[in-house]
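Tokens in:
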């Protein structure tokens, strides 16, 4: 499967979780996770906790439908050819689909498990908010029946979809606990400052471009850009002021917003620029440095670490301690995820047979209504006159 398909599927899964965070169908003032009571066979275990076929099939249905919708939107926007259906997408995704569904379920199960392991619970306000947003969705869809029908079309019962939303709130709670202000994994300001000093540098540059930054059209050849940059470098060697030449000659579109230069770390600038700047001492000027943007003349400048610390604090915290996504991915790698024989029996072609019983009942009702309205030959029924 292509990388483009993989990225699209990853986005669909993320959107599915976000959608799930807006619904819930439990009685009471707040929402708590409720383990489904089901006779469906077990398809996998996550750290010993059982996942049943109806829940797994629901996730597969949701991911497939959203992927089909995404492909159809891209086809309309970009003139892509092809018929995008559950069958065609199921074939295209192949085994990746089943691993994707397994990973999505494991992600949410591990979140609930880690919440409990750390002695935490989803805050009352968050659980109450889920209840309010569920009612808002019912109102928007025109009533509870429409809401339940909408969920069924996506492969979920009210309980299943709501458990997914609660699990997402578990991730949010874990994120705040570990990475919020004064969180358990939050580094000290001394650690952040040390990382800032060790990994960030600053530089100004004079850029002579080969292409127009606005249109992408070529404005000079590589040889012409190099020759122009060399003239400026010769003037610098002759004693002219770097800042004055930068303001006069640089074609960097970001110059007006960064007259004092850029503060950056590895990965934030093109490699050629970063490597050249890092090799300089403070106030030292480079020779000609070629990148995809053109030819640069770089001057490394001092960083006001104390004055800039607050501006970079969030980025520093993420770099030093990571994010909840990093931690979740680590936990997923460490999790004991096992599948059963039933896991291999469920495919995009037969998943409907494994959906929750109430979902199957609603889908069967939809089919019955559709069969009465549309004849098998696709022709519109007309009332025959009686003799």
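Residues out:
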């Amino acid at each position: 499967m292509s990388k483009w398909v993989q990225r699209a599927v990853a986005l669909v899964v993320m959107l599915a979780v976000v959608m799930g965070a807006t619904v819930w169908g439990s009685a009471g003032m707040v929402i708590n996770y409720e383990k489904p009571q089901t006779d469906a066979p077990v398809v996998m275990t996550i750290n010993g906790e059982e996942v049943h076929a109806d829940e797994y099939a629901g996730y597969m249905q949701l991911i497939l439908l959203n992927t089909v919708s995404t492909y159809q939107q891209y086809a309309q926007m970009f003139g892509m050819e092809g018929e995008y259906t559950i069958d065609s997408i199921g074939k295209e995704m192949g085994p990746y689909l089943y691993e994707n569904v397994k990973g999505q379920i494991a992600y949410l199960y591990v979140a609930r498990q880690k919440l409990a392991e750390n002695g935490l619970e989803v805050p009352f306000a968050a659980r109450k908010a889920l209840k309010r947003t569920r009612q808002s969705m019912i109102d928007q869809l025109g009533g509870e029946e429409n809401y339940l029908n909408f969920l069924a079309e996506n492969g979920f019962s009210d309980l299943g979809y709501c458990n997914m939303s609660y699990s997402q709130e578990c991730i949010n709670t874990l994120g705040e606990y570990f990475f919020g202000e004064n969180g358990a994994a939050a580094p000290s300001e001394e650690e952040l400052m040390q990382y800032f000093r060790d990994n960030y540098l600053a530089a100004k540059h004079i850029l002579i471009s080969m292409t127009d930054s606005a249109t992408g059209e070529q404005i000079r050849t590589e040889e012409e850009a190099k020759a122009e940059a060399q003239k400026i470098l010769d003037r610098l060697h002759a004693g002219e002021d770097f800042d004055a030449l930068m303001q006069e000659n640089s074609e960097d579109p970001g110059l007006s917003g960064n007259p004092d230069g850029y503060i950056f770390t590895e990965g934030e600038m093109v490699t050629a620029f970063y490597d050249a700047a890092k090799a300089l001492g403070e106030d030292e000027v480079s020779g000609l440095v070629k990148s995809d943007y053109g030819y640069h003349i770089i001057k490394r400048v001092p960083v006001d670490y104390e004055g800039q610390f607050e501006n970079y604090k969030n980025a520093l915290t993420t770099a030093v301690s990571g994010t909840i996504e990093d931690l979740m991915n680590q936990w997923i790698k460490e999790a004991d995820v096992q599948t059963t024989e039933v896991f291999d029996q469920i495919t995009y072609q037969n998943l409907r047979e494994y959906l929750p019983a109430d979902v199957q009942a609603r889908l069967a009702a939809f089919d019955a209504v559709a069969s009465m309205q549309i004849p098998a030959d696709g022709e519109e029924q007309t009332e025959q006159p009686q003799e």
